[in-house]
Amino acid sequence: MDALQLARLIREWAPDAAPKVALVLGSGLGDVARAVEGAEAIPYLDLPGFPRSGVSGHAGELMLGRIAGCEVVVLSGRAHMYEHGNPREMAVPIATLAALGVETLILTNAAGSLRESVGPGSAMLITDHIALGPNPLIGVEGDERFVSMVDAYDPALRDVARQAAAAVGIDLAEGVYMWFTGPSFETPAEIRMARVLGADAVGMSTVPEVILARHAGLRVLGLSLITNLGAGMTGRALSHAETKHEAARGGGRMGALLVEILGRITEATS
Length: 270
Hints:
Blueprint: H1 3-13, E1 21-25, E2 37-43, E3 61-67, E4 70-76, H2 81-84, H3 91-100, E5 104-113, E6 123-131, H4 155-168, E7 172-179, H5 188-197, E8 201-203, H6 207-215, E9 219-229, H7 240-269
Parallel strand pairs: 1-4, 1-5, 5-9, 6-7, 7-8
Antiparallel strand pairs: 2-3, 3-4, 5-8, 6-9
Helix pairs in contact: 1-3, 4-7
């Protein structure tokens, strides 16, 4: 089933839905889905080609409804390259969002900070990224595969995020996100390398989705919820349990930021 067929299938569940904004929820941000008003939920299992994520903390469903007056489609959970070795794991969902008429994609993730001043519980606005994994457009045909990644994280949307953070009293850090494929955490040497290369945070998702989204013509906003400092920066070993714990602890503030952002997008387009 291709993206257009999937979009028609989704419209059968929610015939009045016409979302222009989509939101992908990362680890620990599942509670944001509870803010969806008039929600129509569709399990990924009912959408051929959508991911079957085996990562705890990722619900695996698509929801349509409104948040802060903004008509949205929410992807509660994502697939990662480390699950099956395929950087195109999110290709079908991203293409389906575009076929639904989505124009703006907001991506969230849990990430490790490379700056001591940006500790667990902090929110970081992604300004750019460094990819240390294979490109999801490898094998795609046509000149459209040569996607410009200048301003991949839309400058106007970043301004909206800054204004929203100020409005809700959140100190929003900004920085470059570096994608490692995982699933093992980075070594202390790799963290030192990442800092030298100009990264401010590291994680195991998001970058393939940004590339796919830009290929589909979507505007992108990226936000990281910081759950830990990078390997070797504290003397402690990293764990997924810590990631989930800190993501849950900081999820409320990130959720408030997302709601404010969506409200401001609604105001700007109404």
